[in-house]
């Protein structure tokens, strides 16, 4: 992965933009999942907030890593024609599990649904991907209907993990994989009290997510993929999460995180 400018070793901070923080569908305040490192041309998921990428392009390439192929995480791939309009790229690569990439090509970009395919290269996920600034991306399986993956990114001087579309538990296998990261961005689709629905749909409630952060010994937890039906300013019960893991924040659209 090449960038016009990278952060390099020892950078003062890494900048992550939460472009979309809702689950399932957008509402008046939130669009669905998309995270972006503008200086690296690095994106995770391509939900309805993908249109915002256009305002933050800084690199000659884009690498989009998908967690899975449910529509709220991939529909933004159809926005690439506008994202790239008057913004020529050397390459746009979409990374994902091979069968998910095939499903996207066959169904989302069927000529009956989307007759002008956007210019991207489908890249099957490898065990690790090395970034030009020294970072290394690893993926790991998550329990979710249809399957999902999480990501851990390690740079020489910092680390983060992105975990979405799974049912959190402090003894889940992925806890060991994300152990010790500086930043954990984790889904929290439901507040406590909706555990049965969370289990059926493959999503998480507040307390188990905080327990995951505590069990993994992460530095900071940011909650995303929240229920779009909630009209509350705090749809997850942030104070409840902070009782378990004090360094918890609720993500919001276009939030900028430095770590």
Describe the structure.
- It is built from seven helices and 14 strands.
- The protein has 259 residues and is an alpha/beta fold.
- It folds into two domains: 15-125, 4-Layer Sandwich (Metallo-beta-lactamase, Chain A); 128-252, Ribonuclease Z/Hydroxyacylglutathione hydrolase-like (Metallo-beta-lactamase, Chain A), CATH 3.60.15.10.
- It has a seven-stranded mixed sheet with strand order 6-5-4-3-2-1-14.
- Helix 3 links the parallel strand 5 (91-96) and strand 6 (121-124).
- The two termini are 22 Å apart.
- The model is unreliable at 1-9 (pLDDT under 50).
Please give the CATH class of the largest domain.
Alpha Beta
- Mean of pLDDT: 94
Cα-atom Rg, whole angstroms? 17 Å
CATH topology of the largest domain: Metallo-beta-lactamase, Chain A
Number of helices: 7
Quick rundown:
19% of the residues lie in helices and 26% in strands.
How is the secondary structure organized here?
Layout: E1 15-20, E2 34-37, E3 42-44, E4 61-65, H1 71-74, H2 80-83, E5 91-96, H3 98-108, E6 121-124, E7 128-130, E8 136-142, E9 148-155, E10 158-163, H4 174-177, E11 183-187, H5 195-201, H6 206-216, E12 221-224, H7 238-244, E13 248-250, E14 255-258
Parallel strand pairs: 3-4, 4-5, 5-6, 10-11, 11-12, 12-13
Antiparallel strand pairs: 1-2, 1-14, 2-3, 7-8, 8-9, 9-10
Helix pairs in contact: 6-7
């Amino acid at each position: 992965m090449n960038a016009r400018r990278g952060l390099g070793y020892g950078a003062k901070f890494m900048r992550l933009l939460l472009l979309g923080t809702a689950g399932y569908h957008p509402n008046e305040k939130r669009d669905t999942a998309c995270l972006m490192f503008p200086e690296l041309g690095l994106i995770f998921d391509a939900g309805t907030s993908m249109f915002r990428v256009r305002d933050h392009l800084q690199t000659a390439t884009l690498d989009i890593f998908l967690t899975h192929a449910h529509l709220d995480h991939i529909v933004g791939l159809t926005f690439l024609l506008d994202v790239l309009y008057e913004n020529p790229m050397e390459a746009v690569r979409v990374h994902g599990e091979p069968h998910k990439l095939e499903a996207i090509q066959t169904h989302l970009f069927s000529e009956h649904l989307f007759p002008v395919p956007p210019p991207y290269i489908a890249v099957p996920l490898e065990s690790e991907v090395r970034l030009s600034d020294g970072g290394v991306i690893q993926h790991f399986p998550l329990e979710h209907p249809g399957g999902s993956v999480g990501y851990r990114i390690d740079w020489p001087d910092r680390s983060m993990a992105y975990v979405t579309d799974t049912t959190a538990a402090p003894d889940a296998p992925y806890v060991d994989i994300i152990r010790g990261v500086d930043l954990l961005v984790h889904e929290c689709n439901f507040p406590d009290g909706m555990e049965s629905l969370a289990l059926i749909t493959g999503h998480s409630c507040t307390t188990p997510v905080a327990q995951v952060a505590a069990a993994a010994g992460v530095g900071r937890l940011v909650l995303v993929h929240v229920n779009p039906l909630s009209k509350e300013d705090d749809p997850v019960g942030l104070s409840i999460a902070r009782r378990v893991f004090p360094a918890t924040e609720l993500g919001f659209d276009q939030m900028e995180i430095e770590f």
